[in-house]
User: Fold these one by one.
Assistant:
Number 1:
Amino acid sequence: MQPVPAGVPVEVRAVSPRRSITSLGTELWILFGLVLLAVAILLGVGMYPMQVPFTALSVPLVLGALLLGPRTMTWLLALLIVALLIAQMQQPTSTPRLIAAMAILILLCVIALVISVRRSTLGIGQRRGESMLVDLRDRILAQGTIPRLPDNWLVESALSSAGGSPFAGDFVVATTREDGRRLEVAVVDVSGKGEAAGTRALQLSGAMGGLIGALPPRHFLPAANDYLLQRDWDEGFATAVHLSLDLATGDYELRTAGHPPPVQRFAGSGRWLAIQTEGPVLGLIPSVDYEPRRGRLGSGDVLLLYTDGMVEEPRRDIELGIDEMLGVAEQLFRNSLDGLAERLAAKVGSRDDDRALLLVHRR
């Protein structure tokens, strides 16, 4: 794209928001259909009051709550309340049970109106709001998809959120560089947990997913630190561990930002070694460098990257948590390495905190 010289007028064309108009048109058709349904029920109540109950008006109410946005839902609720009043006047007798049913339906309309008003800040209906949340969740999980690797490498990740929610503050981002020769992966723990940290995790995972594939390894964590500082969140910090692995030689670089130490299992001795690295938490201190810790994964070696939810519990030292995790991992090794990340994440760690685990094994 050629830059525009100074002083040259630029034509700005307004782009019609076709998707918004299409969405509004669809809602109007749905509203029209629900209005016809309510009118049909109202006619049925008037013609056959003993056969058609006026409580059938709850059907368009429920459908409107699921399919309509806040603005169109308000019009439908106003119509339904008027229809209820007309239906009540068409009843041959007024019994306490009839009056109670009428009061309950009007109360449901008021509740639906309150919910609609509360959703007005988002501006979309419940059905589309839920689909958006599912899409956001899938995007977080997609960031951690491990790319296709050579057959002599096994890399698995596991994520588990506090309370079993699909939204979590822990996530994994991964990519390959240099025509698939180098694997770049980061395990990140955003402050907070569960749904409270899910939105920040989504935004940060998108940024880190772009940075990890675009920057040299030594610049990734400093760039992520600068990004968090610019966001100025109330809980604007995160911990992370970044692995840059040469898939041909097994040489790697590890950098951490306030994160628990990675651990490596050496196939020859069967011993685990914690790899001590130092680096401040992301989002607190500007202009920080993160020094690498270099090593090599030989044939049969295993490297574990994890978040503090895997090893931390109240009133327990983190070293004891690491020892417990490694003890369970050693037991699981006896069966198979396939699926080990999921099995290990299911057995250890705090159920009240988000957990993320990445396993790297050189066959």
Note: The CA atoms of residues 88 and 102 lie 7 Å apart.
Number 2:
Amino acid sequence: MVEKETDEKSYAVKTTVTSFRILEAVHELEKAGVSEISEALGLSKSTVYKHLSTLESTGYVLKEDGSYKVSLGFLRFGEAARMRKKIYQVAKDHMEELASKTNEMSNLVVEEQGRGILLYRATSNKAVSLDTYVGKEVPLHSTGNGKAILAHLPRQRVEEIIAEHGLPKASENTITEPEALFKELESIRERGWAYDEGERIEGLRCVAVPIMTPEEVVLGAISVSGPASRIEGDRFREELPDLLLRAKNVIEMDIAYK
């Protein structure tokens, strides 16, 4: 009897994993048919079709003209998860203020399962268009926000993240060696803020600061990013760090005492 239950659990887990793999493929492809998803994942068309039919019947994917796309059914989960983050509730208005003051893009990122998750983004009418959106996963080692977070995690946790996700190269400026990254993280702790000098996207610069609890636990990071042609010199090295540190101070006080 125990063996049967174990087999059933193993099957259920495998089936769930397959469904989520298919959902992720639909999301990444934006809109795709059974054949395209089957080829992308190396699964049989019949398997893909069965999972998609189930997901469609439960309202989590939509079918239009023979192609599937993720439905808005996931929006309530994502928004509910985001609203539970106190850092989001406190920081979002400050993100808007930073974007307005700098005429650039401001971002709020948290770490989850070793990846950076963009929790909030504010833009100005002069901000450049990027590939980012709320909910997007970004590597921690190649972004300003990510490095600001890593700098305040225990070394063992950082080593676990590197072991799981690696240090993939996104541009010529990406840090891809563990010891070089640890040296950079030490500099960030000493300085108080992190720089991204085109490490994920060439030509883009970013300044980021961590958001901490009174117990020195890192909750996430906030940043301002923009084209290197506008973020340079004293603005990059002094003005933006000072602006972010002041916002950090207010956000941390609100989180601790509101």
Note: The mean pLDDT is 91.
Number 3:
Amino acid sequence: MISDPSDAAIDQIVASCNGDLRGALKALLLVNEHLEAELQQFYAAVAQDTASRGKFLH
């Protein structure tokens, strides 16, 4: 019995890679890189929006 939801997620990820732990780690690293890139784009958009709003306030 799996008590921790993280354990269930890990089991599911490893199972989706046919039990290949190295493949599961590689997939997670790629997903993490993608999410980090999206986050950087979000931060840039927020900074640009904040700068644009600041121009109109003066």
Note: Residues 3 and 16 are 20 Å apart (CA to CA).
Number 4:
Amino acid sequence: MVAQGCACTYKYGRIEVEPQVYPPWMLQLMSQIMPLCGLPDQSTWPNSCNLNLYEDGGMSVGWHSDDEKVFQGKFNDIAILSLSLGVKRKFELRANWPEEGERPVRMIHLGDGDICTMEGMVQKHYQHRVPKEGNVQGPRINLTWRWVVLHNPQCPAKRMRRY
């Protein structure tokens, strides 16, 4: 999903998703969540959101960084805001170049209503995943908000702002 005025497609691996403008329910949800993240002014809110459904513990996402070109997370400090809804799931983070003696993987459990942020240069220096968990029953929805900073050349938002 994207803010009004953006027409950027989302590409992850071989998957390409056409943008859908934030519906009213998304803006209502954001009006509750964004102030909790220090963003009370709607003009500063993220201009994109991915929604992912994990039907049960058998569904997962492997090690990756949110380093898609449109977000510029490998080159600039960025923020990613994530809301978990549904059953509790593991979220793991590992350094790309761990220091000697550093724990290889850090893990937290994200439950219903938990907000997790990744900020700064996390996407350059770390990878994260939601691993498979055989003992998890029930669905989890994850909403991941980000800022598109390098709009596709044909996107109207590219002409509205200079980044």
Note: DSSP finds three helices and ten strands in the chain.
